[in-house]
Design a protein that fits this description.
Layout (H helix, E strand, L loop, with lengths): L14 H13 L20 E4 L5 E5 L5 E2 L1 H4 L4 E3 L2 E2 L11 H13 L5 H8 L10 E5 L2 H9 L7 E4 L9 H5 L1 H9 L6 E6 L8 H7 L4 E7 L5 H7 L6 H14 L3 E8 L7 H13 L5 E5 L4 H14 L4 H7 L8 H17 L31
Parallel strand pairs: 2-6, 4-7, 7-8, 8-9, 9-10, 10-11
Antiparallel strand pairs: 1-2, 3-4, 5-6
Helix pairs in contact: 1-5, 3-4, 5-7, 11-14
């Protein structure tokens, strides 16, 4: 990969294993309930896989690449998202712009007519994020190729933009196919973010994955209040279901905890609210908690601020002032929130951390001996 230099000792964690999996994949079909086509359709309208009664449509795309490098994202880890768009419809989700880019590229390539472009984009450019879900079929081949560029000791995070266990996963099983391939790797660090209890379906795969790699599963939950969660996250699982999923993962031996992001100023940042959430996480067996304040990107404002105006009108002026010049929370607020979170971590017996900054940092660096591949892993 241009710009990425890999030393001979730190070669890909999946080079040999990846080739072995690719060869096996040539001889047996992937675990997908859909027919595999030799060539992707020329138009997205010809690639519709399914449509729900409420109008959500699932569209097949065949990716050439699936891993986003740190150099391309500005983050300190690789990222992977099996789906583009998400049915959960969280009002604060920052990833709506990723869906817009896919739609705009398809339109520019002639795969969408002007009328279809309007439908796939939505009136304000964000609505279709929840109603037009792109499914990355045949993902394993692209993943195997991309993994050749990932050095040992690196981190790959699944679900940075859209939930890998959203309702579509129950049918299409794209995330499961990804995990099955990744279990052939060694010496990497993996993070997974989800709001969905469906992740417990893959508990055995996660245990297998962490036998040769580091794994952190982050159950995303910003409130233990079911009514408030429904207001902020239109179709996400209720908090109790997520906490039960966390307990099931812990009981299965998976390294799992809670990610409380975003913390919403004036809504979910008060001490009693956070204290109740930390207590619930501890009761569910969480190994860790990471938390961070809302980042109000331009792509989020059109969706999030009308909701604030409807349900929390007294906060509108406060949000407009606080986020007038930047997407991140004001520095003093972020520092005060970090102190509050660390006090609660200490109270409930969680290790202190740097909030969202170190949530995927590997706990140990592979030694020189561990940098030698063992060949095709069983």
């Amino acid at each position: 990969m241009p710009g990425l230099r890999i030393s001979p000792a730190a070669s890909s964690a999946c080079n040999v294993a990846g080739r072995a999996v690719a060869n096996r994949a040539d001889r047996r079909p992937l675990e997908l309930p859909l027919a595999v086509t030799a060539q992707p359709p020329n138009r997205l309208s010809d690639a519709v896989l399914d449509e729900r009664l409420r109008g959500t449509r699932f569209v097949s795309i065949t990716p050439q690449r699936v891993l986003n490098s740190p150099a391309s994202t500005g983050m300190d880890y690789w990222s992977l998202n099996p789906y583009v768009g998400c049915e959960f419809g969280c009002s604060y989700c920052y990833a709506r712009y990723t869906h817009r880019y896919v739609v705009e590229r398809a339109h520019d390539a002639g795969k969408l007519t002007d009328a279809e472009f309007a439908d796939y984009r939505g009136e304000h450019g964000w609505e279709a994020f929840e109603r037009r879900i792109f499914v990355k079929e045949q993902i394993v081949g692209a993943l195997a190729a991309d993994l050749k560029h990932v050095p040992l000791g690196e981190t790959i995070v699944i679900g940075t933009a859209t939930d890998p266990y959203q309702p579509a996963e129950r049918r299409f099983r794209i995330t499961r196919a990804v995990l099955q391939h990744l279990t052939r790797c060694e010496g990497l660090s993996f993070g997974i973010i989800t709001k969905s209890p469906l992740i417990t379906r893959d508990a055995e795969l996660l245990v297998k994955l962490q036998q040769r790699n580091e794994v952190q599963v982050h159950i995303s939950l910003i409130t233990a209040d079911a009514r408030l969660a429904r207001t902020l996250e239109a179709r996400s699982p209720i908090p109790a279901a997520r906490l039960r999923a966390l307990r099931k993962l812990i009981d299965a031996g998976v390294n799992a905890g809670l990610i409380v992001a975003p913390v919403l100023p004036g809504i979910t940042d008060d001490l009693p609210h956070l204290d109740a959430l930390f207590a619930a996480a501890k009761a569910a067996g969480a190994r860790f908690i990471h938390a961070g304040a809302l980042r109000l990107y331009a792509a989020v404002r059109d969706r999030f601020m009308p909701l604030i105006a409807e349900h929390f009108p007294d906060l509108v002026a406060r949000y407009e002032r606080a986020y007038a010049r930047q997407a991140g929370a004001p520095r003093e607020y972020a520092r005060a929130l970090a102190r509050r979170v660390q006090r609660l971590q200490k109270k409930h017996g969680f290790a202190k951390n740097d909030g969202m900054m170190d949530r995927y940092r590997p706990s140990r660096v592979p030694t020189q001996g561990e940098l030698e591949l063992r060949g095709s892993l069983p």
